[in-house]
Amino acid sequence: MSILVTGGTGYIGSHTVCELIQNGYEVVVIDNFSNSKRQVLTSIYEITGVKPTFYEGDVADITLLEEIFTKEKIDAVIHFAGFKAVGESVKEPLKYYQNNLESTLHLLAVMQKYHCQKFIFSSSATVYGDPASLPITEDFPLSTTNPYGTTKLMIEQILKDLYQVDPTMNITILRYFNPIGSEKSGRLGEDPNGIPNNLMPYIVRVATGKLPQLNVFGNDYDTKDGTGVRDYIHVVDLAKGHVKALDKLDAGLHIYNLGTGTGYSVLDIVKTFERVNYVSIPYQIVARRPGDIAACYADVTKAKKELGWQAELSIEDMCLDAYHYIEQANKRAD
Ligand code: NAD
Ligand code: UD1
Fold it and tell me: What is the pTM of this model?
């Protein structure tokens, strides 16, 4: 079975490509390297012993998509490609609507033309907005507070509309909670350009001395220690969730939360990171970050019951592996 993975050299995509190859799938990747590096393809080869077929280009490029669907026998598509920085999406909304929506619309149109009916989409827990209660189940009301989140919600709606007119389609929407960590060898991971916005990449920069200290955004939330609580999930567990979703892909439109079901506070993460990696993470408490919510974690019953999937790796694994990747990357750069 041949799977087209859009954004397959990105953080989650590259981990998923490895899991797919290790589970016997043939993989075709398209990426324009707008937020990833060509070196990732070598890393995938080093980890799996297989070079996925690769097309460099934009998912919005219909001519290229047609070439891929003509040359490769694509049975299913996993669509990771898109921009994902919340703050940037507020400043440059058109860039986000254009890239995330146009690429998805063009991809779906070409899939339709080539009678490819299996589609897995990367959505986000951000579509739950500020949830009224916890844990969050898939039927919670949806809302967003920024253009990035709105693109996810709009694409979910597009998929629901498409399914209405073609109920033979197999569509799975996966709503990720907070992916962190890296695969064990330290060859793939997350190292954003510039100053990181997200917690784990920021902590890693502090641990390696590239940033002086972590700013903890608020300690006056209604949580166990006052700092924000999130459902962090190891990226390898998340990648495995895609393989399970693909194995299971049957006619219908299915939506699953992919998280662990457990919430950890910012200070839990800082303390665990310090303990398992034997480093110190100096921090100061600063004002809340606008738009942040107090707490967010998933009810993962549905994915467990219907996909037979649940996260297995611990918060200790996540902290160890995130640091290991950067240590290895820094060694490679020396
Ligand atoms: P990433 O930026 O590492 O990967 C996205 C990849 O897509 C990159 O390699 C980029 O070069 C590529 N890309 C972007 N636009 C493209 C286009 N038009 N054509 C071809 N390639 C394009 O991001 P990620 O963390 O791996 O996230 C993957 C998906 O999961 C995204 O859709 C993201 O919104 C979603 N998601 C991510 C998180 C997270 O915390 N990382 C959480 C929820 C949802
Ligand atoms: C962010 C995105 C969200 C996306 C999610 C998963 C924002 C506003 N939201 O969510 O859309 O779905 O990632 O990738 O970017 N924190 C600090 N100091 C820091 C960084 C973060 O204290 O320097 C705190 C935050 O206040 C929060 C927690 O750490 O309580 C996690 O933050 P982050 O990693 O940015 O993820 P989310 O805000 O959950």
Answer: 0.98
